[in-house]
Design brief:
The complex is a heterodimer of chains A (221) and B (565).
Chain A lengths: L1 E2 L1 H14 L4 H16 L4 H12 L4 H4 L2 E3 L2 E3 L7 H10 L1 H5 L4 E3 L2 E2 L5 H11 L3 E5 L2 E6 L2 E5 L2 H4 L3 E2 L2 E5 L14 E2 L2 H12 L2 E2 L3 H6 L15
Parallel strand pairs in A: 3-4
Antiparallel strand pairs in A: 1-11, 2-3, 4-10, 5-9, 6-7, 6-10, 7-8
Chain B lengths: L15 H4 L2 H4 L9 H11 L3 E9 L5 E8 L4 E8 L18 E7 L4 H11 L11 E9 L1 H12 L6 H7 L1 E9 L9 H4 L10 H25 L9 H4 L3 E6 L6 H4 L1 H19 L6 H20 L5 H22 L8 H12 L2 H12 L3 H4 L22 H11 L1 H4 L11 E6 L5 E5 L14 H12 L8 H7 L4 H12 L16 H12 L2 E5 L5 E5 L26
Parallel strand pairs in B: 6-7
Antiparallel strand pairs in B: 1-2, 2-3, 3-4, 4-5, 5-6, 7-11, 8-9, 10-11
The chains are: A alpha+beta (221), B alpha+beta (565).
Chain lengths: 221, 565
């Protein structure tokens, strides 16, 4: 099915909320899926794969704690949705030359959208690297070097985020809607459904305003 | 903001604490900046042309039509499908499954293949899929009584009864107009750089405008096919009295809360326009004449405005006496003094109801197109530009922002049940926004973030335990539950009309106030609440039709003419 980016963002947000993230983090998770899909990358699928991983894990076990300057979490892998937001919040520190190192992290490419915006906030190019992947984000645009398979990995042991040099050859976004396969749609829906309140007799009566059940009631004359 | 508020000057922008209250927002009226009016002004100025390359219907109104609007750079086509809908299936509810007519606004000129594809999908609405070639998906139901009356009258060779037309005001009413990437349509961002679509809801307004022509063509066609020898067309004078009805329910209400930057831009444009008018040293004879004429027409308008909702009936009573007082003021010599518009505005603040004050704001803008109309250009918004949290901000600064923007909320007792009586949620059954009773239903796990005041008060409480020099970045790592409200607070710190300064979950809040605010910016008239959470309106009533745009004034229709009284 062809989805608009707007739908991908809205569904991604609800799915992330359904998986237990706060509304603020979920909003940014939806934006991350949208950003990746805009560049033709499987942002929705990666978001879902990651949500499957963190489903049922409490925030305190996912939040990064710093040990010797390296971020780790109490669970075995850092969450890129939490770390992405935290790194973007520290765009100003990156601009002043600070580097960040992350230990084991799932779906590192989910960090990229956050740092794309961080490069705008910081008004400086930001570098992000893991395995063979070397990414430069500059004024919201993205340059990617390295193996495609490494970019899409489900897990990286070590990630570095730092100020970078200005570059060229930025990726071009794909202009129109994206294909989302049936399986991904139903997985999205499963997470989304957790955010919807089951109907009760009371809500049926009150929720929309009981007068709305009347049909074509042109009572003006 | 360029123009200051709350400074010691004779004229200032109205403070957000005054403007962004639900009672006032629920009293807004259409004005020069309303989106229907900006659409018609642009199309007139840019010499848009219109044609109808396809119109194939049977005598029951089943078939298809295409209406194309051609601008200087691009064309947009409304693809219409008429259906045979049994009366028992006709419902205005968003969850209906069948409609009298369904529509898509196509980007350009559709081919036969496009029309076939759309016919398969558009008739199913939410259950179908459209593509990035489409901008809008919509549907409408007949006003059965008026539709049949008009068809039967025209078929019999005479004009429909004016009283019946006045009582309803439209032949069809839309029950949804979906844009912004819904159901596979093109993303807003992909078309927002087009001059003609840069303003808010311009594609939606164009869709409704073309639907209006379709409804008239359809009734004339059905009259002609049912009685070819006797049928007549609608008189030109009568045609204009038909607008397009619209039923708007709770689905629209969260929009004003979910789009803070956009709402700021709408409200600020209107407030700047008011500020500019109030700042004028004198009024010309022509401006005074224009104001007097429009005030008289507003008096006619309120007489035609029908509602049975007790609250609206009460407000209409106030508005009638307010307009009478305003008419008397406008006829007096006070209009010839120094800063007459500001004097009039200040008189209104002291002597008119809120409904009347907001009517006055709209009327004050009318004689001043040169001051007002250009502000329409600033009413769009790139919301992604303000999305990211500024993590470097200190908690001391955040605390000051919360005190400034949400000061009202810090005074509310959020432990009192009546303060938090409601909860916004999405229903699993309907996938639509709903407003529930927090203490009657199990809703909290599903609650949508639609209570900025409550959330800001909770944020304020938690900040207190932190040092003022700490950064938001550190605070949010420990308090992810505040990330949403911190984002809103930072937006509202720079864009003061972004936030509603009222409790959106209290026992007494009225969702229709949110609906009316948004619909007034559309340019709707005759708000008719049918409960506290849905409202009927009329769109484009009295507006020139596409083929008339080039002939006369494209912007002199929002209030009825005196001779129609």
């Amino acid at each position: 099915m062809i989805f608009s980016l707007n739908e991908i963002e809205a569904k991604g947000k609800r799915a992330a909320r359904g998986a237990g993230l706060s509304w603020g983090l979920a909003e940014e998770a939806g934006k991350a899926a949208r950003w990746l899909e805009h560049y033709g990358m499987p942002g929705t699928k990666m978001l879902l794969d990651h949500l499957d991983r963190i489903d049922g894990i409490c925030y305190d076990d996912l939040v990064p704690v710093s040990t010797d300057g390296v971020w780790y979490s109490r669970s075995d892998r850092l969450c890129p949705l939490i770390c992405g937001a935290a790194l973007c919040d520290r765009a100003g520190e990156i601009a002043t030359g600070r580097t960040f190192s992350l230990g084991p992290t799932s779906f590192p490419s989910l960090l990229v959208p956050y740092l794309a915006d961080a490069s705008k906030l910081a008004r400086t190019p930001i570098g992000l690297s893991w395995l063979t992947v070397d990414i430069t984000l500059e004024a919201g645009r993205v340059h990617i070097a390295g193996k495609a398979a490494d970019f899409l990995v489900a897990y990286a042991d070590s990630i570095h985020c730092r100020p970078a040099r200005s570059t060229t050859n930025f990726l071009e976004p794909r202009p129109r809607g994206r294909q989302v396969d049936t399986q991904t749609c139903s997985r999205l829906a499963a997470f989304e459904n957790r955010t919807y309140a089951p109907a009760t007799e009371y809500s049926r009566l009150v929720g929309a305003g009981s007068e709305m059940v009347s049909q074509d009631s042109e009572s003006q004359s | 903001m360029q123009a200051p508020y709350n400074q010691e000057k004779s004229v200032s922008l109205r403070h957000p604490e005054t403007v962004m209250r639900l009672e006032r927002m629920g009293s807004f009226h259409q004005c020069r900046l309303s989106f229907m009016r900006t659409l018609l002004r642009r199309m007139k100025e840019d010499l848009w042309t219109f044609d109808c390359p396809k119109f194939e219907f049977d005598r029951k109104g089943v078939g298809r039509a295409i209406y194309t609007a051609r601008g200087p750079l691009r064309s947009y086509s409304l693809v219409c499908f008429g259906h045979d809908l049994p009366a028992e299936h006709r419902s205005d509810r968003v969850i209906a499954h069948a409609w009298d007519s369904t529509f898509a606004l196509f980007d350009g000129d559709p081919t036969q293949v496009d029309v076939k594809r759309l016919e398969r999908n558009v008739s199913k609405q939410e259950a179908g899929r459209i593509s990035s070639r489409e901008i809008i998906l919509s549907r409408a139901n007949r006003s059965v009584r008026l539709f049949n009356h008009v068809v039967q009258s025209l078929a019999a060779g005479h004009q429909p009864d004016i009283e019946q037309i006045e009582a309803v005001g439209y032949i069809m009413r839309t029950t949804a107009v979906y844009g912004s990437g819904k159901f596979g349509a093109v993303d807003r961002e992909a078309i927002a750089d087009r001059k003609e679509l840069a303003g808010p809801f311009q594609a939606e307004m164009l869709t409704v405008y073309l639907i209006r022509t379709y409804t008239i063509d359809l009734v004339e066609h059905m009259a002609r096919t049912s009685s070819p020898s006797t049928a007549v067309r609608l008189d030109r004078g009568l045609r204009r009295r038909f607008g397009v009805g619209n039923s708007t329910g709770l689905g629209l209400a969260p929009f004003l809360i979910s789009h803070p930057l956009l709402i700021h831009n709408w409200i600020e444009a209107r407030e700047k326009a008011l500020f500019r008018v109030r700042s004028r040293a004198q009024a010309t004879k022509e401006q005074i004449a224009c104001f007097r004429s429009l005030t008289a027409r507003a008096c006619v308008n309120v007489e035609k405005w029908r509602s049975r909702h007790p609250l609206q009936v009460y407000k209409l009573g106030l508005l009638k006496s307010d307009l009478a007082a305003l008419k008397a003021y406008a006829a007096s010599n006070r209009m010839h003094g120094m800063m007459p518009w500001n004097q009039l505005f200040e008189w209104g603040e002291k002597n008119l109801s809120i409904e009347g004050q907001e009517q006055l704001v709209s009327l004050l803008l009318e004689p001043h197109p040169e001051l007002v109309d250009g502000l329409a250009e600033q009413m769009g918004a790139d919301e992604s530009s303000v999305f990211r949290v500024d993590g470097t901000m200190s908690l001391q600064r955040l605390r000051a922002v919360v005190e400034d923007v949400y000061g009202w909320a810090l005074e509310v007792d959020w432990n009192a049940p009546e303060s938090v009586a409601r909860a916004w949620y999405i229903s699993e059954e309907k996938l639509e926004p709903r407003l529930g009773e927090r203490f009657e239903e199990h809703l909290e796990p599903y609650e949508q973030p639609m209570a900025p005041g409550r959330d800001a008060a909770a944020l304020f409480r938690d900040i207190k335990g932190w040092k003022g020099t700490a950064t938001i970045a550190d605070f949010l790592l420990h308090h992810p539950e505040h990330r949403h409200i911190v984002r809103r607070a930072q937006i509202a710190a720079n864009f003061p009309y972004a936030e509603i300064r009222d409790n959106t979950i209290s026992a007494t809040m009225l969702p229709i106030d949110l609906l009316r605010c948004k619909l007034s910016f559309f340019g709707a008239t005759h708000f008719d609440p049918r409960s506290d959470r849905w409202v009927r309106i009329n769109m484009f009533q009295n507006a020139p039709f596409p083929h008339e745009l080039s002939e006369g004034d494209a912007d002199d229709w929002s209030l009825p003419c005196i001779q129609e009284a």
